[in-house]
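TEACHING EXERCISE
Course module: macromolecular assemblies
Task: Read the component lines below, then compare them to the predicted structure of the full complex.
Student: A.B.
Group: 4
Components provided:
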Amino acid sequence: MRVGTSMQATGASGATKKKMTGYVGFSNYPNQEHRRSIKRGFSFTLMVAGESGLGKSTLINTLFESKVYPGKDDNAAAAAAAALGVVVGSEGAKTVEITSVSAEIVENNVKLRLSVVDTPGFGDSINNDQAWKPILENIESRFDAYLAQENRVNRSKIVDNRVNALLYFIKPTGHGLRAIDIEFMKNLHNKVNLIPVVAKADTMTPREVEQFKGKILADINFHGIQIFKPVSDQFDDPETIADNKAIAGKIPFAVVGSERLVERSDGTRVRGRQYPWGIIEVENEAHNDFVSLRQMLLRTHMEELRDATDVSLYETYRTQKLLALGHVQDNTVFREFNPRQQLEEEERVHAAKMQKLEAEMAAVFKQKVQEKEGKLRQSEDELYSRHKDMKGVLERQRGELEDKKRRLGISDAGMPVPAVGVQQHDGAQPAVQSKDKKKNRFF
Amino acid sequence: MASNDVQDYVGFDTITQQMERKFLKRGFNFNVILVGESGMGKSTLVNSIFASHLIDSQGRRAAQEVIRKTTEIAPVTQTLEENGVRVRLTIVDTPGFGDQCNNEGCWVPVIKYIKDQHAAYLERELKPQRDRVIVDTRIHACLYFLNPGSRGLRPLDVEVLKRLTEVTNVIPVIAKSDSMTIEERTAFKRRIKEELAFHRIVVFPYACEDDSEEDRVLNASIRELIPFAVVGSEEVMELDGKLVRGRRHGWGVINIFDENHSDFVHLRNFMLRTHLSDLVEVTAQRHYEQFRTSQLRQIKELRAQQAAAAATGGPHAMPTQAPPQAPVANVMQHQPMTQV
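Instructor-supplied answer key:
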């Protein structure tokens, strides 16, 4: 395809923007990618953290509409404990454990390998100073495992276990973040996509929820904590931008989870919690932000979460780790290879070389010329002085010859001349003679 | 018959009215301490129970405010009057309790405060010339706020409750219980009762041998309800044409006075209408006496030590006849550190 005559460089890449006159078909590429990724399947690792009793497991089960965490019913646990004759919970979990549950869920032929990592025992002890450390270590060990796989010789099968998102459950106190929340978030916000969630939103009235969210955001900004926010870029359509803004405005999400169905006054059955004073519905946007959370986590921003994990969080970790290990950054490998540029460069180098040679030769030549000139001048001077000498000699000889001529009585015209005392040979005589001659002539 | 009654009527049954009159004149003190993490609704509950804005929430308001590093003690005293009966009510709030990452020892200031009040009373009692009526600053009731939804008592709860029940009457309360459905609430209460029994933590009301039958029945019904699942509110709103205190959600309105919604009414009645004098009396008879006994024993031992030292070492004799207050005070200072 011939490129048009006007070659304007547009955009940072320097590529020209050209309008095509017919349908080419490369716009089908995303569909091809889509088919391939469906075949491959996706993996998503979600971590939940927060004190016990905030409804983490219930929320997970509600989000994925399946019993990812079985048997989280109090009754079931208590019954089991009673059967064993043990009163559970008094000693509590003194350390933070990390438990992981994996499930493969299929929806519309899309396979999702979902892993949920729970952190029981977080924040339950008296001293919770180090409660966040096991969680951080777990996240970093997953990064390390990925790094090791990347550095293998055969990289065809890489299993991605990195944590894509961390839902942090905040207790609904109404007073902003607690010390343990701030500690946790400050230590983990640059290793994982943090999504703060206000647990048990049915504790608070709508006005209290708004105030609480405001206080939480103020605390987050004050401490410089980075949380995951859905951002729109210039390529999105206005509807997506509006959706993203709506979702971002609800962060942190105030959610309620429930695995049970309850019957409403009009007879329909919905997932919710039944109180003597009313029913709170999980999927009612007016009652809580569960729908927005699900939307962001699963329906719109799952890929962005995975991307952010891979591109920014993991890369930052990798850079730090490798630099810490002593690798040095060598930037010369980043120079671009452009043949024309290289040729030009070579030419320039060559021309420069030539110029140098020329200059040298010119200098040498000049020097030699100067030497030769000097020599010639010298010989010229010699010749001149010799010439002068020889001329002097010749003059004398001629003087002598003329004397001789006069003595012999030959005049200038070749006629004999009377002898007038020609026999003197000194120089003065001829001169007087000539003067006299001249005198004579002029009178 | 009738004539006998009129002539044989002695009239000492009017003692109750005489006591009442005295009470009305004198008024009485009632001191409550609130122990629980920030954000549990302590201030709101107290303001709801006494139907007036007594204390302000001590929670952190702005992001710039620093999280408290230790538990503070913030007593607020006010005089309330109802039907001619005056009460000097002191509410002691404990901001900072359980709020840090490391909560080791966050109960120490609380226990110390309670013991200090016992000590102050003992000091005044031991004075040769004491006031006719000693101002009673001893803590009569401690409302301990439990987290709703946890799997029972947390390690912090166990530690603190063990220590609190030794020095004062503890009434455990489930804070913000509107986050639990009725079944969850029942299960949680059962769990808490089991764990309290397991750790041998004795909460108020205590069983006493000389309880009358109706007392026993009443106490048994109270014990069924413990811990009280409460909801507090300072907002008054209209519900079915009546003005009630409640919380308005988008999906329902909680009426804190409704027995089906919360145990607020039971708690209030228990604390104020039926067991108020019990709380004061038990504090004086049980906790204060325990404290007094241990203190006097210590003083006696200290005096014995000093006497022994004076007898054995002449030049090194320590002053034996120190005034009663001083050793009490000295021992007081050591007390919280060793026993807490």
